[in-house]
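Interim report, section 4.2 (structural modelling).
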Amino acid sequence: MGKASIKRSKLARYEARLAKIYLIPAFLGLTFLTYLPLLSVFALSLFKWTAIMPKPLFIGLGNYIRLFSKDMFFWTSLKVTIQYAVLTVVLSIAYSMSMALLLNRKIPARGFFRAMFYVPYIIPAMAVYMSWGLLYNKDFGVFNALLAQFGFARIAFLVDSKYIIPSLAVIAVWTSGNLIVIFQAGLGSVPRVYYEAAEIDGANFWMRFIHITLPIMSPIIFYNLLMSLIANMQVVVPSLIYAGSNRTTYPEYTFMSFLMYRSGFINNEFSYASAISFVFFALIGAFTLVLFSTSRSWLFYEGGDK
Amino acid sequence: MKGKRKLISILTAMLVLASMAGTALAQERVTITYSMWGDNEEVRVLQETIDKFEKEQDKIHVEIVQIDRADYVGTLNTRAAGNNLPDTGIMAEDAVLMWAEQGMLADVSKMYGEGEAKPLDSLAFTFDGKPVGYSVANEVLVLYYDREAFAQAGVTPPPAGADGAWDWDTFVDVAKQMTLDVNGNNAKSPSFDPNNISRYGVMLCPDFWQLEVWSVSNGGSWYDENGKVTIGEPEAMEALQRIADLYLVHHVAPQYGTNTSTTLDQDFVNKSTAMYVNGQWSIGVWLGAAKASDGLDWGVGVLPYMKEKVTLNTGGVNVAFATSKNPEAAMEWLKWYAKEENAWGLIQSGIWMPVLSSYYTDEALTRKWVENPNFPPYDEYKSAVVDYALNNARPTSWYWVNNTNLFNDALSSILAPAWSGNVSVADAIQNNLEQLNAANQGY
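Predicted structure of the assembly:
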């Protein structure tokens, strides 16, 4: 007995040593490619530096003060980024969950439809946004042709401040094929026996969905929610395509990532862009934290572990 | 056997020596780098130009650094941060003074000696009274039109000379005649349906800086000669309101900024507009090709005017970076490249206009430039572009004002609600003058 435990602990020590060695590359990568750059971005945000300035000038919290109190774009940017992210996440989770449920049924040519709904996700963003730009066109686009046909006033979807965010959200939802695939994988793993038992008990589709599918799927919903929230907070492509620098920038396009990009790479203000990115980082962090802390109340793990 | 080995070692030694000598010979040429934006076709044309340069002299070798236009200044910034700038390069107009202010651009006043043929003074970017770069090309804003559309409507097309330039009311009236709804009624007809327009009278290029021309035309300005913001004065604002009213009141143009593409040839071919305001470069970039491939019959005229008959001139700038280790070679290359005959491919195709005044005043030279396949008839281009550029053009404000990029970001955002008619241009600007001044100061 005593001999065996000594042996085990020797083995355990050996394994622990090995694990540490295996962790070195990941640790180096994290340190030099993630944490140090993160720290240096924060350090840079305390200076005034334009990349072409000979020496950075220490200004303490100057960039942050400017951002919160003087920057005409910041508060709008914060507002539209959150609006866009929340709207897009809610719609695309609902859309891709419904699509996954439909595609999970035994319908003819299921493989074909699965591919069809995934395709938008892999089309290059430039092509997606250019094509949707044509569809949304006020004078010559399909949507407005339909509106005009039925006697409604035309809508400048990508210019009118009331419609910009919803119009962009629709494009994002259309391209959320990746979420459908993940949901499908999740649905495939729900044990049939639960449904059969529920059916015998007389549960209809909605009851089965709410009491079986949703709880079992909740970890996957959580994963999709988190990933899609982080991805959509970082939205920048529509700004670059529809409102690139040099063009009329409608305030609804000044997403945080765009503001960061424009300050740093168009207007030379690297240190200011660092401050924006740090605030942005904190914002995404806060949203993630809220999501994590509320998840305890609705997340269901089959094993019983929370 | 021994002899053979000796022979081999001697041969090897000779080979090594020979290759070293070869390197030494090649090293006599100083290598400098030139960064540019442009597609592979432009790189090909430029490489031919460089080959010519290297044939003419044996001291300098030029390497091209190709950077995407959208990321151009950002990439240069990053390279500056890494102390890895090219020796020379083209520079975006709105970044020149910012780079000059940081001492990153070499003073090029010594580039041209006394009595040497210099580019037009209006094409020099100045900082602290010193030239820091010359535009490599001249460009002016003009009014393009679909000749066929005007002929069909029986309406006189835009005048090709500043003498006959339309005043604003005439322009709006013509634009109304050329705007059609889906039933074929023009904007002057009582049964005109502004909700279902099939062709606009006019479109404006969405490049925001171009709007300055209207304020200047109305006797106003965006800045005074010291770079102080003057856009809050009535003339400047009134002109921009008139631009907004093309859509809001007259229904002859789409809402400003709705049109996100600058490809006016497509708008003409698709019959979505009868006139289009854009820069001269459109001829080389789009219209010449559209004439050849789609048979598009386009014409060029001068801009309408409010109080003064003016257009704006501008043009990408060639600069030598102050960090270059070979400033003499850098300037020699730039000076050689600035000569018209050395950038002839771009001029002949209609992308660039020459920078030397002789091309505007000496008919033989003008003909050499204009009588090329992409151009409209000589007389039309001569009066609508050549004479117009010589007599009516004023430099865009970025030739002497810093931070125009920050200012334009702010102004374009401030004016967004004015284009849709939610506020007046005057209110939008007056309520945000403090912001505009801050942007002008670089925050």
